[in-house]
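Same chain as my last thread, 372 residues:
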Amino acid sequence: MNDVLIQRIELLQVAMSPPRPHVAAHGTVGERTVVLARIWDTDGAHGWGECVAFPEPGYLAETVDSAWDALKSGIAPAVLNRPFDSLDHLSDYLTGSVRHAPVARATIEMAAWDLVARRQGRCLAELLGGTRQNIATGRTIGLVKAPETITDRVDEARRDGFQRIKVKIEPRKALSIAIEAVKAAQGIPVVADANASFSSGDVQKLRELDAAGLTWIEQPFTPTSLRAVADLSDSLQTPIALDESVSSINAVERIIAMQAARGLSIKPGRLGGHSATRQVYRLALAAGLSLWIGGMLETGIGRAHNLALASLAGFDVVGDMGPSSAYWTRDLLTEPLEMVAGHIAVPTGHGIGVEVDTEYLRMATLRRQVFG
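reply #2:
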């Protein structure tokens, strides 16, 4: 690859509205502010990246505001007009420059992958090494409040054609939620996601889930409680997967060394971008772990990046890929990502393969800053 030089960076904060609030053990996400980055090289090629930070700390340490500040004050000035000869080179440089902001770094790093794919006239999936053309869809159902029921929501997901259903659980109602969901799913795989809401005193409640017919139990304990997860895994037939624990390459090395899980939910926007994600991917495959791409309530921009990654062989479990309509009343794309027969086609256009509705983006933008 010839040297690439980022000549211009545009940062945007955009207001997004979901069809319904997303409720999990770590909090509720309703109206959401999303940070986007668009970058240009000296030849006028461009690329899009999306920051997966939430407005408040909790699920992630980084927030919309902290990521914006890191991008504005550290990352954008550091990469502007600095040539790089490979995307891994850029990723290493970003890590060295802004070590403690992987979520913010990923915004520019993933935009650079889009830019390079466009420069080469290739789709991002091909550049990453992907082979799948269609990705099976999964529906995530938050904690449900009356008058809705888990049965109602799972029935809806099953009728819509989703290939996997994930339900959020919390200690008080975990077993009843799981049993109700599995029954309503009528054979579709069901994952119970605890979002680290259980403690060491709740082990018996987790053991009770073993009889519910779940496909996976995801992230029962806090991210650093790997010994507790490993001990729990040894006592269950239902496999344990980790999500919040998958925060870095070093964290994955610890998970593998402790045999703490049989599956991992991989989120490139949390790991620092595509280069770091591919390192995690190779480590996990070599260790024999099952893998899927997790979701962070991305817009169509981030979702297109995730679809490209999900096309790699080895992401053999249905993950959190869903259509635009499942997450936003209106997405940022000219042609929203839609589901057909329980699958979403991997975009084949240059770069991430989707086009941003720039007029709608302009109306939804709350804040903008340009560098270069």
